[in-house]
Every structure is written in C-alpha cells, then in structure tokens.
Design brief:
The chain is built from six helices and no strands. By secondary structure, the chain is mostly helical. The chain has one domain. Helix 2 runs antiparallel to helix 6. It starts with a helix and ends in a 9-residue tail after the last helix. The N terminus is likely disordered.
C-alpha cells in the first residue's frame, strides 16, 4: 500500500482525503453539492489547483470554458462525453488521471454531473 501511494505521488497532505456522500440529481445545485463534497479540498477559492476555482462561481469557471491544461472544453452543454470535467471525474483516461487523484467520487455523483451536462448545463441563473 505504501509503495502504491508513493508511486501515485499522492498522500493526504498533497491531496486531502475527501469523499462526499453520493449525490443523485441533475440540477446545478446537485452539481455544487458534488463539488462541495469531492472537489473543494483542492479546487476551493483559497488556492485552487490548476487555477480552477469551483467554489466562488463554479458555473462561470467551467461552462463553455477552455480547459487550462488540455485541448478541450471543461463543460460542453448537452454533451458530457465531450466535457473535460466529466472525463477527469470518470477516469476516462483521455485527459490524464482521474480527479480527484484518490478516485473517491461515488459513481452516482459522477452520473449527476453527466446528467446536468446532458440537460444543457443550466446554472439556474448563476451564470
């Protein structure tokens, strides 16, 4: 186990242990709940990794926004499979490793993000 963590370059200091409860739904509020439980430890407003702040205004940070480190768009409304955010969360391998690096997001939460994206990534007036 220790060797695996060393090889992955990941520990609870670099990437805090997270793992929110599974979130089921398809609304922006549901997606924000996923972010709060699974993403803000690294992508909060204080020091967002990769300059991706999912706390202040997640919608403006991800919907129709080019990915900083990949050739793609973070969220393509109506198409989760074309969205870098979903690919990273689902560990598709298309854009490097899974996010979070601990791979702790519940499948139901990943499905919630996909459903929201496929429904048009409506931010409920937040954007």
């Amino acid at each position: 186990m220790v060797l695996w963590l060393w090889l992955a370059g990941c520990d609870d200091t670099t990437y805090p242990a997270i793992g929110g409860d599974a979130v089921v739904g398809d609304t922006y509020d549901d997606v924000v709940t996923v972010f709060e439980g699974d993403c803000l430890a690294c992508h909060g407003s204080a020091a967002p990794l990769g300059d991706l702040d999912l706390e202040t205004d997640a919608c403006s940070a991800i919907v129709e926004v080019d990915a900083a480190n990949y050739d793609g768009v973070l969220v393509v409304p109506g198409d989760h499979a074309a969205s870098v955010l979903w690919a990273k969360m689902s560990d598709s391998g298309e854009y490097g490793g899974v996010m979070p690096p601990t791979g702790t997001i519940a499948q139901a939460s990943i499905d919630t993000v996909a459903a929201w994206i496929d429904a048009g990534a409506d931010c409920g007036g937040a954007r």
